[in-house]
Write a structure and sequence with these properties.
Length: 288
């Protein structure tokens, strides 16, 4: 657990991005149950999502280390990117991932049938690893937080992590006692979209994490000046974060700092391998 200070405010940071540099921190947690299975148990992993997804790259590393095939379904890849793959896509392809392109209008129908199409010996992982299989590993993250807080003599504090699918925040909420608040912010879509996602894994809304969203909706991974600014200030304060998820969570935490149950522990979920292509977008927009 690192001490971290930004704008005169103190935080703790759980450095989950450092556990294994090949994996995005929380993707390692979410893949834990599958990773610990013997290699012979499966031969193929099937998943779908964006072409720069952190989950995609983490699954590609897992499949490489296990000797499993990895079939990944994504929307049509632009020609320039296909000719010269970059970032997470390049790394995943180099690891042996087989990319299947689907036209955007057919995409969601197509991915519905994947699970039944790949039979025995295969594992289907929904977009972003939003699946009950993620609970075991996130539960271990919660145990590590509890172990630390017991040693530090802390009973009441706040754990913060940004949400894509919300799976990490939801299972942290489930595995931490009620004296500890869990807060998150939606980075994909708005609060109601996040609640719909959470509802797929938890029927009881009272067991959802607290959602902070003073900034409102912004298209996923679209450059935003304020995101770049806070990302730089975080970096100058000593920790490199990802440019897609972390900036919004930090802006919300700084805004709500006095209202939250302190101290605040931020779970760093990695994703820094995506910074190269994000920075490229900022450059293209003229922010850099
Ligand atoms: C995937 C990811 C998230 C979102 O995790 P969910 O469990 O889908 O909410 C947050 N931060 C980083 C860096 C990620 O890679």
């Amino acid at each position: 657990m690192d001490d971290f200070e930004i704008e005169g405010k103190h935080f703790y940071v759980k450095r989950d991005e450092l556990i294994d540099p090949r994996y995005s921190g929380n993707k390692l947690r979410k893949l834990y149950s599958i990773l610990k299975a013997p290699s012979g148990r499966f031969d193929t992993i099937v998943s779908y999502g964006g072409t720069q997804s952190n989950a995609m790259l983490s699954i590609a590393y897992m499949c490489k280390s296990k000797g499993w095939n990895f079939h990944y379904y994504c929307k049509t890849i632009p020609r320039w990117l296909k000719e010269k793959p970059m970032g997470n896509l390049k790394m995943a392809l180099d690891l042996g991932m087989v990319a299947h392109e689907v036209s955007p209008s057919m995409f969601y129908d197509r991915v519905q049938t994947l699970e039944s199409e790949y039979g025995n010996g295969s594992v289907f992982i929904p977009q972003g690893g939003a699946d009950p299989v993620a609970e075991e590993g996130v539960g271990i993250l919660a145990d590590e937080i509890l172990f630390w807080s017991a040693k530090a003599g802390l009973k009441s504090f706040t754990v913060a992590t940004p949400s894509g699918t919300g799976t990490t925040a939801l299972y942290l909420r489930r595995h931490l006692p009620s004296g500890i608040d869990v807060v998150t912010t939606p980075v994909v879509g708005d609060e109601s979209a996040l609640k719909t996602q959470l509802g797929k894994l938890e029927a009881d809304e009272s067991r959802f994490p607290i959602i902070l969203d003073s900034m409102g909706k912004w298209p996923f991974a679209k450059p935003k000046k304020e995101y770049l600014d806070i990302w730089r200030r975080l970096k100058d304060s000593g920790i490199l974060f990802d440019l897609v998820y972390a900036p919004k969570m930090w802006l919300e935490l700084i805004e709500a700092y006095e209202l939250l149950k302190g101290p605040i522990l931020y779970v760093h979920s990695g994703g820094v391998s995506g910074n190269e292509t994000q920075l490229e977008k900022y450059r293209y927009k003229g922010y850099l």
